[in-house]
Structure formats: structure tokens, C-alpha cells
Amino acid sequence: MKKFYSGLGQLAGLITILVFAFIQLDAMVDFGFMTAEIGDIIRIIQIYAVYVLAGLAGLELVSGKKLIALIYFIILAFVVVSSFFPDVMDQIIGVVS
Questions:
Q1: Which of 57, 44, 42, 43 is nearest to 12 (CA)?
Q2: DSSP 63
């Protein structure tokens, strides 16, 4: 399973770097076809790509270690929920406090 996570991580790393390079190159050269909608989509991909890359790197690290993997999944779930669903986090905090 570690090789699978490693391959996915390499692919995610490549996509992340290509997206960052495209954004920087567009800022310098101004391709012209970048509408506001395309720019928004590219920036959303940029954000998700970083989370995917970090998640896959962590999965590769904890593969085979059950207790550490459980802790990692809990932390990863917290980061994803708090980043992409702030209203859900507000509701959870409201219930807990």
C-alpha cells in the first residue's frame, strides 16, 4: 500500500507544481484566455492540491501503523472539515460548548 500512496503522492506533487507554475506564468505573461471563472477554478485546484499532497504524504508515512494512522485520520478530518466547511465547525463548537 505504501507504493500506491507514494505513486499518488508523486502525481499530486507534479500536479501541484504545474498549477503553481501556471498561476505564476499567467501573472507574468497574461495568457489572455484566463477569465475570472477559469482563474477561480485554478485557484481552487491550487488549494485542494496542497491538501491532497499533504494528506498523501501523511498516508505514506503512517501506512502500516494502525494507532498512528487513526490519530492522523482524526487530525486530517479536523483540518478538512475546519477548512472547507467552517459552518459545520461552528455548529460542532456550539454543541461542545
A1: 57
A2: T
CA atoms within 13 A on the CB side of 44: 7
Give the CB-side neighbour count of residue 85, counting CA atoms within 13 A: 9
Q: According to DSSP H, which parts of 1-97 are helical?
A: 2-29, 36-62, 66-84, 86-96
> What is the pTM assigned to this prediction?
0.71
Are 72 and 62 within 8 A, CB to CB?
yes
Rounded Cα gap, residues 79 and 51, in angstroms? 9
Closest by CA position to 76, among listed 90, 91, 87, 60: 60
**49-94 per-position pLDDT tens digit:** 888 898 888 888 888 888 998 999 899 888 888 888 878 878 888 8
